[in-house]
Specification:
- Helix content is 52%, strand content 7%.
- The chain is mainly alpha-helical and 135 residues long.
- Strands 1-2 form a two-stranded parallel ribbon.
């Protein structure tokens, strides 16, 4: 199914792709902090990459690709810093990404999964502090 959609999409002109990309409500993949000019350029780039055959093939093989690592966890001697939305905080606490190391931290913030767009300075500052705390 994806391959047929990909073929149809790839026959569109770049402008048609950009328009279709907006129709598909993927505008959320464009950083809202960009200027209008940069946002338009990014929209064209993203639209040009939509339904790329390699991405379609990768999507169709997710189960096979993820199965070997599905139950892997990071070792507890490794300190981790995670940023999550408040809605996914409980999920991340149970994940294999948050270790039991005493310096491991989970920072929950309001927003969608593009937290780095909404809180770039906070994330940078917190990451710097975390790295500094490791000595």
């Amino acid at each position: 199914m994806f391959a047929k959609v990909a073929d149809a999409f790839n026959q569109l002109t770049p402008d048609q792709k950009a328009a279709r990309q907006k129709d598909l409500a993927i505008q959320g993949d464009i950083n809202p902090l960009l200027s209008a000019e940069d946002a338009a350029a990014n929209t064209k780039i993203l639209a040009g990459k939509m339904y790329n055959r390699n991405l379609v093939a990768q999507t169709q093989n997710w189960n096979a690709m993820l199965k070997p690592v599905a139950n892997q966890k990071l070792p507890n001697h490794l300190p981790t810093l995670l940023f999550s939305t408040t809605k996914r905080q409980a999920e991340f606490k149970q994940s294999g990404y948050l270790t039991q190391h005493p310096k491991s931290r989970l920072i929950a913030l309001e927003g969608n999964h593009y937290l780095h767009w909404k809180y770039p300075k906070l994330i940078a500052k917190t990451t710097d502090q975390f790295i500094d705390s490791l000595g």
